[in-house]
## 1
Amino acid sequence: MGFEDFIMPTIESIKETFSNLDRPKLQLLALSSAGVGGLLCYLAWRTSPKKMTIGDGWWGAGEKRLNEDETVYKFVVKTSEEEIQDLYRRIDQTRYTDPLEDCRFHYGFNSAYLRNVVSYWRHQFDWGKQVQMINQYPHFKTKIEGLDVHFIHVKPAQTPGQKVLSLMMVHGWPGSFFEFYKVLPLLTKTESDVVFEVVCPSIPGYGYSEAPHKQGFNSMAAARIFHKLMERLGFTEYCVQGGDWGSLITSNMAQMKPEVVSGLHLNMITAKTSSVGLLSILVGRYLPFLVGFTKEDVKRLYPFMEKNIYEMLRESGYLHIQATKPDTAGCGLNDSPVGLAAYILEKFSSWTDLQNRDLEDGGLERKFSLDDLLTNVMIYWTTCSIIPSMRFYKENLKRRIVDSVNNVIVPTGLAAFPNELVHCPKTWASSQFRDIRSYSYMPRGGHFAAFEKPHLLAQDIIQFVEKVESKRRQ
């Protein structure tokens, strides 16, 4: 009996034995098993059916209601003097620890510069004025799967001859819908043949969207809810765009209902790495053309260990905390506005450009205004959403998400910003995204593209959609 004669019946037997286990559980069993048994379980997992399950959910408090109110109602962001005075009281009681000499941002948010930020927050930042600015766009809420889902809905200023396309844009952590405020006017009023009607939801548990009351709310659940939101608004076809968690959620949306997603645009690119991908890492620096790398790929990828392993280890401590014990760390952040600001704004420093760690002020005000940064912090503070937003990591990382199993077949546009935390060459991305219409090496910018480089992001979205529309007309 040959190896194949032995192995395939054995795999089929294992698959039948574990037929009641879903793929993530089978994968976990394979990874936790040793020797030949673990190998056989792994092979069974790899060869098991890769099915997309859409399903349904209920994330509200208590039992699922038979009938859900599907009313879409207007929502207005408000504040009060009591809210502001409580913030001031907590800020005034903050205790600081002096930074180490010449540590800059290498130990996290430099507490000397933090005092400057907090002083501005306490004495110059006008939350009431910022609330008025937030309300410049129409806000709404609607109940989906037991949760009040918040979103802004901005209709375009259409000119004769322009085609109006629907677009959903999804934020990530530690951002919010507010990240898109600078890119919205560039998409809803264009000189292109296309213009956009934009919907920007808040992920449940973030900002003004209600937090899930039950365990298990991951990117697939968010994708399903956002599809339901678009359907409720009357859209039958739309583009989706995202970065950070938004890139995973929108990718899941494209996988879930490719018949309604006319295009997917991402400004954070991730793809599963195969054995061929691992080989390309070894070969790509010296013979890039053999593995499909460009000179720009080589520049952004290497030295590989430093840029992709060591740097990620330096920057991903938060991820391990939030993927394991989010509520513990979140207690302090939810109680201290200054602690919350330090935790969030440190990410806007290093994720915009890792070289900002070498600066005493983290380079924050080089790319952003304190008003914009503190407005994002205030959205987390006033809604007590830091803990539920952190839980999203635990819910997503405790099981394999379907995007690593199923390919994306809808037309895809990828914007690779040079200061993104990781770089994904087009040749790697094509293993996951099977219809890449546009892959752009962006000249400047980092992780928070819509916030930092709105003009560049808007231009890339428009040129991608124009390519999609042009091919559809052929």
## 2
Amino acid sequence: MGIALVWSIITVLVRWIFSKRRGAISYDSSDQTALYIRMLGDVRVRSQVGFEPERRGSHPYLGVDFRTLHSRAESAGSIPARRIRRLFSFQRHLLSSRLLRGAPHLNTLHILDEDYCGQAKCMLEKVGTWNFDIFLFDRLTNGNSLVFLTFHLLNQYGLIELFQLDMVKVRRFLVLVQEDYHNQNPYHNAVHAADVTQAMHCYLREPKLAQSLTSFDILLGLLAAATHDLDHPGVNQPFLIKTNHYLAALYRNTSVLENHHWRSAVGLLRETDLFSHLPAEDSLGIERQLGSLILATDISRQNDYLSRFRTHLDENSLCLGQSSHRHFSLQMALKCADICNPCRPWELSKQWSEKVTEEFFHQGDIEKKHKLEISPLCDSEANTIASVQIGFMTYVVEPLFAEWARFSDTRLSQTMLGHLGLNKASWSAMEPEASGSSEEGESEPTRATEEPSSRALSQGSQES
């Protein structure tokens, strides 16, 4: 009897611990997907304990720890510096919290720290400009660009007050979101999420949208932008499928990463009780519509969305007075924000191009190591940064932004197309064969269109 009682207690405790684990999603038992998620557990916990699912198929699960996939060895001297950065970040958190409450400074922070805060604040005053340097802003905020920028925008739009959001819960939610991005990833990290959120803000301010969108639409748009690549593993969907990753099985090889980003975001919303004060129907509606926006970033469905968008524009049938049409316009805005890097000024666009290509090539190296078929654009021996970017711009970015300019014919849309043309010309100058339009050069871009979903997408939402 004693052993049975002890075993029962242990079982109850284990269940309680798993139910409280960060990242788990406590949907109703009727939600089959949620049941799977609770059974499988959190991705980070699985990788930490070395969990490896049952092997099946021709290519067993590789057991890759995606949290350290792109990490580099750090010297012992880098640890104190990292701790100092964390201290500064905590100090900034205290400072911003006091300022929001209108409380005076109780403790004087380091002059350098206050200078950095002041510079970041000056940058936020120009957060709506298209040449906003997210890399500089991230440095000024000690790697907290996503938290600071998103919180600022939510406050600037008056959403915190309007929806009666608890500022402590908002900040905790944003901190958890930022933490759940893999900052070891060269491209799909919290800085990319902050960049997409800033771009989304620029689009929300465009006259056609600004005059039509409701505060609820704006809230959804900003949250979707901030969480659209949450917990991205740094490899694309085809990689997860061919290695029999459990997420591919969970979502039946369909929008695997986008579904995971969405479910992860919902998990953090529920963990922080951000919308617990709203009626249950309203909070569930937010979760569903958030999912609809994030799922729209699946590059494999690019042609479907683009075709619908083009048809609306051809027939002049897009009525932003209807909630469904406003939601569709938000989907298109998020898709644009997700892959807008080629439309940024060259100094910014080039950095993003190098980062996304580094991530692609690293995946290709893993595929070579495990003797897997190398994904398109991931073979560093067959591709260059220039060739990858030229194909991506030609077959994915240009068609989308050409239609966006028809929808919102403003100075911003023309500026983006101008940068896109100049950036493409710059890459073409580095890749003479690509600009020569030889048969060999045409075959590669064609592959990029056929499978935009895996890596061409790369840059943006990339399916990841």
## 3
Amino acid sequence: MTDLESSKNGKHHEQQHHHHHHNNNDIVESEPLTWRFWRKQRYIVVMMAFFGFFNVYSLRVNLSVAIVAMTENRTVVDSAGNVSYEQDFPWDSKQKGLILSSFFYGYILTQFLGGYIGTRIGGNLVFGCGIGTTAILTLLTPLAAKHSLEMFLAVRIIEGVFEGVTFPGIHAVWARWSPPLERSRMASIAFAGNYAGTVIAMPSSGLLAARYGWESVFYVFGTIGCIWYVSWLLIVRAGPELDRFCSKEECDYIQKTIGYVGTKHIKHPWKSIFTSMAFYAIMASHFSENWGFYTLLTQLPSFLKDTLNFELGKTGFLSAVPYLAMGILLAISGYLADWLQVKGIWTTTQVRRNFNCGAFLAQTVFMMLTAYLLDPTWSVVCLTIAVGLGAFAWSGFAVNHLDIAPQHASVLMGIGNTFATIPGIVSPLLTGYVVVNQTSDEWRIIFFISAGIYLVGCVIYWFYCSGELQEWAKTPEQKAREAEEKQLQLTQTPGTGGIVNDGAELKE
């Protein structure tokens, strides 16, 4: 933020700017950040979180591909030459919709809890246990499916319960590990793990199912998850001050730039949180992004196979292409978002707003195009662009909690993600009811709904988002420091009745 801009934005911002500047940007590490990320412990945490999210999504996505193999009709020719058809599980489209959405019934329950426990016992434990338990349950999935549909649904719901704590848990980790000017970068590199997981899990699930049977899908990814869990517990701690690999200098740097040293007993100002428009803007965006995302995540393999007639092996690969685009663009968008702030080209608010709304507008357009074209090549191209550009939205709303209220971020993420999980439940069920005969007109309706929801999210976020630390989220120390700095400025500015002003400021 340049001084010119801050004078435009009025006195209030100028003071905030000075306070912010004085706090964060003057503190410099003696060894600056380079591509040798392993020399900074916080980037080891980022890499471990990346692989954590890799597991979160590979454990979630494998079912979308496996279910195609679990329910496909196979032609069986017996010794007498009679042809018959068999399938492992005779589920219809509505049952499949129920199975694909069952995960989210559990997932929605523990979002808030994850954020709350994360601030209490440390986000690292919450994040680790969430993924570790999901991995163990994935290993048990084939047994459950063969037992009964009910048992299968129960296991998926419990997986959701444990995976629900992962996003709020990681926000509790960032609240203590990420310096403000590295926030977009650190969070988006970690979130890119979601898409890396999707990109690798979708095609490899298709290959595993085709070659070794659908059970292998669950065994392979479950095992990878368990290995990660053990490593995470050994390497990552809740905050830099607890990490023996984190140098004293790096620890001081992180804590000074964040501007608060982790207090365990954070009192959350509930009334302010639930009356904050900046927070509602984040929630609306999160809901919109997830609607488009979950619709495609759960339905894309079926859409490609049934409407565009791709075979199973190819379906996995093509379904993964949009997420590959998103994973690559996430790293770019996170870096770009930080760079624009560091260079003072855009304020934090402008970065969040422009990235988020730009992405949503583009997604609206490309979803509409997908609906109109329904051509094998062009549909995949449009969907790839629509999903890929979502990366810029993640550098908007997904990091925004940390701007407006860093020490409440994990709870805000918990509340927001609870609301943003509704699409995961509603969208597969809706698709199951709308797309009965797999006609292109039915799919068109699904894409139009997604486009409309993106547009609404875009409008709400544009008017109400903020990148500033909210008044209700300031610690007493921060408020005291601001009052001091205002006092200082007033004494330096001739011709203002310092004392009167200061009294009025403090009262406000």
## 4
Amino acid sequence: MYLIFFFLLSVIRTSHSALTKPDPLPILPIPSFQQLQWQLGSMAMFLHFGPNTFTDSEWGSGKTDPSVFNPTRFNATQWVRVAKDSGFSRVILTAKHHDGFCLWPSDFTDYSVRSSPWRHGHGDVLAELAGAASDAGVGLGLYLSPWDRHEKSYGKTLEYNEYYLSQMTELLTRYGEIKEVWLDGAKGEGEKDMQYFFETWFSLIHQLQPKADIFSDAGPDVRWVGDEAGVAGSTCWSLFNRSNAKIGATDPLYSKEGDFHGQDWVPAECDVSIRPGWFWHETESPKPAIQLLDIYYNSVGRNCLLLLNVPPNSSGLISEQDIKVLQEFQELRNSIFSNNLARKASLVNASSTRGDNSRFGSGNVIEEGIDKYWAPEEKQTEWELYLEFRDSVSFNVLEVQEPIQMGQRIVSFHLEALNNGIHRWERVVNGTTVGFKRLLRFPRVQSRFLKLVVDKARADPLISYLGIYMDNVSVPSLNTGNATSQDHIEIIQKNNSRVFTA
């Protein structure tokens, strides 16, 4: 009897000691499901297309004859294929730009593709794009400009808001699932005063397309980064106070950096055009791939999504010049980020592990994805991850990711490498916010021992991914406007590397 009792007691004790510690409590605010999917997409392609494409304009007057719109080789499948092959997760079309011309046959205006010679007045750009995107598994978004220079009711608050919402309803009920609705406060000086019922618009959009993220200067789901250069702040929180923002009148610095004390989750989207203009112009050329890579570091690499505008030309196709640059941009990213040297580590360890359980172990940080992560023990004052390699590794890029479904936590961090010659850890680079993804560049380092240190956090820091890479084509803080890849390689060769022998 006593033997049975002690046996049962030991089983109970063993089962209690083997219990897994629960996940840490998320720290608010946290992203919605739609915001998570948006962030995981990393890059979207903007498609500015309309009468401006044919008139060499940026802001149309709203008086251009619809007959100018006639893209004789229009092929939405080509647009989507270029986007997908170049690594873009969704495409966003200017369904109506400021000139008021609609790329779908709207029932509420005669200023649309229905009045053009294209497809003999029976064409629908959005319908063809929606079909191509659905077939390719690429998300679809749309931009419906609030400012309308053609519509006669513009300036009459009630009438125009009814008009705008009627067109929005057409777009959100005819073309399948919409992933993003893009709005802005752009309006030329001296134009009619107009009050937009934004909150009503937002409510209708979420009602008709509950899986769509709404972009504007102030969210509600995604915010503008505050510039059109594709550059986020070096500190960039997804935390934001919508009450501190107003569409068309938000402080650009607040948009760039977000808000450490923010009560809302509103991550930033970085919009920039591959060309000088937003619409296609025959005399313009695309930015070089190396410049797009620099933009990528300063957008996706700073906890944002990159929205790159690639305007179709007057024939209705994305130009071969642009395609070539996009292919080079994709190849550059693959050459750098397809080889995470951290995976070669013979040992990955941490200063502590939550519950001393492998479920939260340090080994999670070299597995892709945000579902698994390293979590330290509670109430610690030091948060460190260690990597040891059998042989020295050379690298000049650091990647850190947080499991943002648990909230954005890290305020500041740094990377150290062991200089065995003097038996001392030396600082390689400092960083502030992380969020979904943080990429930092620095002169080349070579070492066998690395240490990532979280200096400050809003709550116990959680890290889902750690990467180190060798980038042979770019250097930090370089103005890449006119630089070629070879220029970058030569500059790197002139830089002194830090070699920590061990």
